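If you are new to this repository, start here. Below is one unmodified record pulled from the training split, so you can see the exact layout before writing a loader.
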Amino acid sequence: MRATPKAGRDSIEGIVTADDGRERLAIRLAAAPSDGAANEALVRLVARALGVAKRDVTLASGATARLKRLHIAGDPAKLAAALQSIIREQQ
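And here is the target side for that same chain:
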């Protein structure tokens, strides 16, 4: 996923295709990338959007980069359905 800090608001923008041809989830965060505030906002936003507890979402890599990987605990089928719903809303 690609996170953009210091945006006007927290939002999931949808799927974007990068220069390398890979698709990524684009997320905007109002928080600045200092003291982990943007990462914390990212975890909160994703947990809320997918309907899981904040403790079930952890940053797997990319703590200081725009490209991030998250580990989300839960039922894969339910998580996939929730993510598809979010993507459809953004299109």
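Two things worth knowing about this chain: The chain has a mean pLDDT of 93. DSSP finds two helices and five strands in the chain.
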